[in-house]
Amino acid sequence: MPRRSEGDFRDVPEGMDPLHYVLKVCEAIGKKYGNATIARDLHPTSPMVSGAVIAGLTSVGAEVRDGGVMPSPVLPFASKSAKCTIMIGSPVKIDRQSHINLRNPDGTFVDAEACGAIRDRIDKGVELPDYKKVGCVRPVTGGIDRYKDRVMSAVLSANCQVIMDCASDCPSYVAPQMLTDLGADVVSVNSHPGGKSPVRHPSPDELNLGYLAKTVKANPGSLGLAFNSDGSRLAAYDEAGRYMDGAAIFATIIDVFRPPKVAAPIDAPMIIDYLMGQDNVIRIPRGVSGLGAAVRDTGLKMGSDCAGSFVFADVSYALDGMAAGAYLAKAASETSLRQLLDAYPETVTGGDFVKFPWDNAKAVKALSENLLAMDRVSFSDVDGFRVGMESGWFHVRPGEAGAEIVAEAKDKMYLAGMIDLAKRALDASSKVSR
Length: 434
Prior knowledge:
Elements: E1 8-9, H1 18-33, E2 35-40, H2 46-59, E3 63-69, H3 75-78, E4 85-89, E5 99-103, H4 112-124, E6 137-139, H5 143-155, E7 161-165, H6 175-181, E8 185-189, H7 210-217, E9 223-227, E10 234-237, E11 243-244, H8 246-257, E12 262-265, H9 270-276, E13 281-284, H10 291-297, E14 302-304, E15 310-312, H11 321-334, H12 337-343, E16 348-354, H13 361-372, E17 378-380, E18 385-389, E19 392-399, E20 402-409, H14 412-430
Parallel strand pairs: 2-3, 2-4, 3-6, 7-8, 7-9, 12-13, 12-14
Antiparallel strand pairs: 1-5, 4-5, 9-10, 10-11, 14-15, 16-20, 17-18, 18-19, 19-20
């Protein structure tokens, strides 16, 4: 599950009604930006939350461009001259109220400073103007067509059999037709929205995709694609019916399309380094907050959080599972995904936890020096410290009351040796502060 990110206003203060909180947040957003383009998914509470979003924005005089029901990757193509975009939906649990995601017009996440300014406005309160200065709401059209045209011009064709699960939500209005137009033979399941509770959990994790898995296995040679409720995440099944998580999809797209460099999280699996070479992987913190900005600011073609979210510069800088599905379908039309996956080297993963005083600058500096002194092939200080070694890597990062060690290696013995090295470095460094 992706980590919570900037622009995610779902942490309702204790004692405040969730809908009233949305109203107050959008008053602050409207005051800061002046106009916004909004869209929503098909969760039963999303129309209600949309009303609160519109009320909050217009109450401070902001202009609202309402895209109605559409996937979040479409928003950059519907935003036009908007200063920000808001996607409504994707609750943590199906039985919870939809929340709002604030993004920049190009699909990147708003930064921490901008989110902090909005939260400050909420705490201080926003003065409402005279009713004559209330903002207006205008419908937005054409965003879906512009988005589809952009993806199709980037991907060009995808001549394969696809079985697609759209979580009975807004990707249903875009993804099946887009893949069909690219030349795929598409069979859709859970792609007929009914406006009530979804037929499966919206997260495209293997546990939630039993029906799609059975359908793909019953139709050998087909590619299975599954999206979350707003189209920002992707999971897949290869033509043998084997589940592909975000990292496997990322590796496959890299292998087929060979981008010169990619953005990947600091704990990306070894297969990404194996395919790209360590010098061609731009390390970013875990989560999705910095993914779009990393791709944009470094001039990359693509990046992924290795958990099912992707950014493709040829389309936009928004998290885009639907475009990833199109690229994966093109890959499947050119080669066997099963054979690609079978050819990748197997690895083992593991980890441990050690007490460590991250709030002590001397200890952290000592840890950095101790890790740099190791026999290593790479080193990164993003989101903790990552040490790349000849046949594996380990990542030492802040956790609750100590340090988490996450590692991956070619075999169990090498893995155990790396974890032991990390523990000894942590222990020696923590003694500096005593």
